[in-house]
Design a protein that fits this description.
With 557 residues, the chain is mainly α. The protein has 22 helices and no strands.
C-alpha cells in the first residue's frame, strides 16, 4: 500500500511540475511555484496520514467511524472542515464581493442549520445510530424499505454534491496551475479514492482537521490584513466599499439576490433543513464515543463555522476595495460585476485575488493550496458517506441481510469507494461546460425534503409508520427534483426554454411541505398491525435515544 501511495505521489508531482508548459482554454494565473510546492507538501503529508491510518483501520467500525475514538474537539474541527467547502470560501466571499450585504444571507442560512442539529438531533443520533443515519431512521421501522429510501436519498445527495466539487476543483486547478481540466479532475478523484479506500474515516477525519486549521488560519490572516488597511475600522471599510462599488450604497441593503418572500423562505428552509440532512455531516456524529462528545462536536463546529463566515464577510468587502479598486485586477472586476463564470471565474475568484493583494505570491500560493485542500477534504467525506450507504445500508442490511460478515462489508465499501470515485471523475468531466449552480441547490433540496423529514420524525414522532415514511420520503424527493427541473435554473438557463413552468429557483418550501404532510397523512391513516407495533416500539426507542441504554434495535420485522 505504501508503494502505491509513493508512486501516486511521484506521478502527481511530475504532472504538476510539467503543467507550466500546458495551455488550457481559460486564462491561467502565472505559474506560481509557491502554490505548487505548498500543494505538494499538503498532498504528501495527507498521503502519509493515509498510510498511518491504514495500519489502524482493521474493522468496519474503524473504517466507518474511526472506531469511535475521535474527541469532541477533533470532531468539531473535522465537521467544520467537512462543512467549509470551496463553495463557502470562494462562493460566499464572491457573493459579498458582487452584492455586498446580501451575500451574508447565504452564510447565515448555512449556519442556522446547526442549532437544529445541536438542540434536536446530535445526542439522539449518536445514541441510536451505528454507522449511518439510516440506522436511526430504520431503528423501529421496517428495515428494508427505510434503508433503501435513506440510501437513495444519501447517494443522490452525495453524487450531486460531488459533481459540484469535482467541477469546481477542476476549474480551480486549471486556472491556478495550468493543468488541463480533465487531468485536474482525475487527480482529485485518485486522491479521494486513496484517502477513503486505504485510510477510511480516520484518514478522512485528519485530512478535514488539517484543512480546517489551514483554512481558518488563512482566512484570519486575510481578514486581519484587510482590517489593518482600514485601521481596524468597519466603518471605514464599508464606506470605502460603497465609494468604489458600482452599486454604491445599495450594497449595504438587503433584498438584491432574493427579491420575493417565497424565494427567501424557500432558500432558508433548504439551507437549514438541508444542512441537517447531509449524510456526510450526520455520519460524523458516529465517530465520537458518546452523546456528550457529540454535543461537544456541534458546539466546537458551530464556533469554528460561525467565525469562518464572519471572516468571509470581511474578505468579501475587502475584495471590493482592494481588488475592485486595483488596476491590476481590472479584468476580474469587470467579470464580477457582469456575473462572472458560474464556477470559479469572475466573482468567485475574489478571495484568491485578495490573497495576492494582501500577501503577494507566497500567500496566494498558500490560499490556492488551501482551496484545493478544502475540496479534497469535502469530497473524501462525501465519498465515504456514499460508500457507507451502499455497503452498510444496501448490501449488508438489505441484499445480504443476516449473511454478510464484516470483512465482506468492508470489501464492498472499498469497491463502492472506487466506483464512486470513477463516477465522480466521469461526471466532473461531463459537466465541465455546464452551469452547475442548480446541482448544489438540488443536493440541499433532496437532503431537506427526503433525508431530514424521515430522520427527524423517526426520532420525535411516535405515530410515524413505515408506510408514511416511505411514501412521504419518496414524494418529497420527487417533488424537489421535479420542481428544480421545471424551475428557472434548469428549464430556462440549462434547457433554453423561454419561461419556467415553476417560477421559483428554490423548491424547498414546497417539497419539504409535501414531505411532512405526506408522512403525517399516510402514517395516521395506517391501521395495520405492523403500524400499531411500530408505534408501541417508539417508547423503547425514545428511552434509548435519550440515555443510550436499551434495546439495540426496536425494528418490527
Amino acid at each position: 500500500m505504501l508503494k502505491t501511495i509513493i508512486i501516486s505521489f511521484i506521478t502527481f508531482s511530475s504532472i504538476l511540475f510539467a503543467s507550466g508548459n500546458i495551455e488550457g482554454e481559460i486564462a491561467h494565473q502565472p505559474l506560481n511555484i509557491a502554490a505548487i510546492i505548498m500543494f505538494l507538501i499538503f498532498v504528501g503529508g495527507t498521503l502519509m496520514i493515509t498510510y498511518w491510518a491504514a495500519k489502524r483501520t482493521k474493522t468496519a467500525s474503524d473504517f466507518y467511524t474511526a472506531g469511535g475514538g475521535i474527541t469532541g474537539f477533533q470532531n468539531g474541527m473535522a465537521i467544520a472542515g467537512d462543512y467549509m467547502s470551496a463553495a463557502s470560501f470562494l462562493g460566499i466571499s464572491g457573493l459579498v464581493y458582487l452584492a455586498g450585504y446580501d451575500g451574508l444571507i447565504y452564510s447565515i442560512g448555512f449556519l442556522v442549520g446547526w442549532p437544529i442539529i445541536l438542540f434536536l438531533i446530535s445526542e439522539r443520533l449518536r445514541n441510536l445510530g451505528k454507522y449511518t443515519f439510516a440506522d436511526v431512521a430504520s431503528f423501529r421501522l421496517k428495515q428494508e424499505p427505510i434503508r433503501i429510501l435513506a440510501s437513495f436519498g444519501a447517494i443522490a445527495t452525495v453524487i450531486l454534491y460531488l459533481i459540484a466539487q469535482m467541477v469546481g476543483s477542476g476549474k480551480l486547478i486549471e486556472l491556478l496551475f495550468g493543468l488541463p481540466y480533465e487531468y485536474a479532475v482525475i487527480l482529485v478523484g485518485i486522491l479521494m479514492i486513496l484517502y477513503v479506500t486505504f485510510g477510511g474515516m480516520l484518514a478522512t477525519t485528519w485530512v478535514q482537521i488539517i484543512k480546517a486549521g489551514l483554512l481558518l488560519s488563512g482566512a484570519t490572516f486575510m481578514a486581519l490584513a484587510v482590517l489593518y488597511h482600514f485601521d481596524f475600522s468597519f466603518e471605514k471599510l464599508f464606506q470605502r466599499a460603497v465609494d468604489v462599488h458600482d452599486k454604491g450604497i445599495d450594497i449595504m441593503s438587503p433584498g438584491g439576490l432574493v427579491s420575493d418572500p417565497i424565494s427567501a423562505i424557500s432558500l432558508g428552509i433548504a439551507l437549514m433543513f438541508g444542512t441537517a440532512g447531509l449524510p456526510h455531516i450526520l455520519m460524523r456524529f458516529f465517530t465520537v464515543a458518546d452523546a456528550k462528545e457529540a454535543r461537544k462536536s456541534v458546539f466546537f463546529a458551530t464556533g469554528f463555522i460561525g467565525y469562518f463566515y464572519i471572516l468571509t464577510f470581511i474578505i468579501g468587502f475587502g475584495a471590493i476595495v482592494m481588488v475592485l479598486n486595483n488596476p491590476e485586477y481590472l479584468d476580474l472586476a469587470k467579470q464580477a460585476i457582469s456575473g462572472g463564470s458560474p464556477i470559479v471565474g469572475g466573482k468567485n475568484m475574489a478571495a484568491i485575488h485578495l490573497s495576492h493583494a494582501v500577501g503577494g505570491d507566497l500567500f496566494l500560493g498558500f490560499i490556492s493550496a488551501v482551496a484545493f485542500a478544502t475540496i479534497l477534504a469535502v469530497v473524501s467525506g462525501l465519498t465515504l458517506a456514499g460508500a457507507s450507504a451502499i455497503s452498510h445500508d444496501l448490501y449488508a442490511n438489505v441484499l445480504e441481510k443476516g449473511i454478510c460478515d464484516e470483512a465482506k462489508e468492508m470489501r464492498v465499501s472499498k469497491i463502492a469507494t472506487i466506483v464512486l470515485g470513477i463516477v465522480a471523475i466521469g461526471l466532473g468531466i461531463a459537466f465541465e461546460k455546464q452551469n452547475i449552480a442548480f446541482v448544489v441547490g438540488l443536493a440541499f433540496a433532496i437532503a431537506a425534503s427526503s433525508n431530514f423529514p424521515v430522520l427527524f420524525l423517526s426520532m420525535f414522532w411516535s405515530k410515524l409508520t413505515t408506510r408514511g415514511a416511505v411514501i412521504g420520503g419518496v414524494l418529497g424527493l420527487s417533488t424537489a427534483i421535479l420542481l428544480v427541473i421545471l424551475g428557472p435554473i434548469v428549464w430556462v438557463d440549462v434547457l433554453g426554454n423561454a419561461e419556467a413552468i415553476f417560477p421559483y429557483k428554490y423548491p424547498a418550501l414546497f417539497s419539504v411541505t409535501v414531505a411532512f404532510i405526506s408522512i403525517w397523512f399516510f402514517s395516521i391513516t395506517d391501521n395495520s398491525e405492523r403500524a400499531k407495533a411500530e408505534r408501541v416500539a417508539f417508547e423503547a426507542q425514545d428511552i434509548r435515544s435519550q440515555t443510550g441504554i436499551g434495546a439495540e434495535g426496536a425494528s418490527v420485522h
